[in-house]
């Protein structure tokens, strides 16, 4: 799913066996209690995935922010409300973890994604800036 | 420093004793090996602070992203290159931790901050979207 996407196709490698870097990242995510990588199954098929990260900050009088990244829905399962269900879950889960804010960055090359997030109540108040190292 | 800022003034509470929520957040940051809260001192005075977070992801073939947030420089120490030094450190530290990307979000109400980040090579490729819970 990560590679079946106009941006992901350029940066992933899904040949089997998978590069060991994926396995190392999976272990790092699993080890860290502030990372939650979720897989959505329908009738024993993996149809979506997303990652929630909880980050403690001193700002806002000492708080936790939730961040959602790497949201992917299998192409033939889009347009069926699955994305909305994922975000309903993510919002509730973030509240349960005491987060006051759920944040994400979305590539400006995906205007349809931005519209979807706006429909959920997200506001594009910030610039999402990246520096490749 | 967090409150001495046009946005921070509205959302922080710096009366002494500090609300316990700050102390709880400080302990949560200290406990988490993926969080690095740094304080910059000059002649025994705290002049700046910032927080680096390292997040493992499956995307980009399994990778680590570095994220910098809550960058504050004491007002009478601005314009002296301290921000640039902080980012030189943050970039090197992120490379040392194996991150392929350093990311941040900056409030669109701070256009001068965006220009500063652009001067360091950051690209505003993403929208930074927030949902208050």
From TrEMBL, chains A, B:
<keyword id="KW-0808">Transferase</keyword>
<dbReference type="InterPro" id="IPR000182">
    <property type="entry name" value="GNAT_dom"/>
</dbReference>
<feature type="domain" description="N-acetyltransferase">
    <location>
        <begin position="1"/>
        <end position="133"/>
    </location>
</feature>
<dbReference type="InterPro" id="IPR016181">
    <property type="entry name" value="Acyl_CoA_acyltransferase"/>
</dbReference>
<dbReference type="InterPro" id="IPR050832">
    <property type="entry name" value="Bact_Acetyltransf"/>
</dbReference>
<protein>
    <submittedName>
        <fullName>GNAT family N-acetyltransferase</fullName>
    </submittedName>
</protein>
<dbReference type="Pfam" id="PF00583">
    <property type="entry name" value="Acetyltransf_1"/>
</dbReference>
<dbReference type="GO" id="GO:0016747">
    <property type="term" value="F:acyltransferase activity, transferring groups other than amino-acyl groups"/>
</dbReference>
<keyword id="KW-0012">Acyltransferase</keyword>
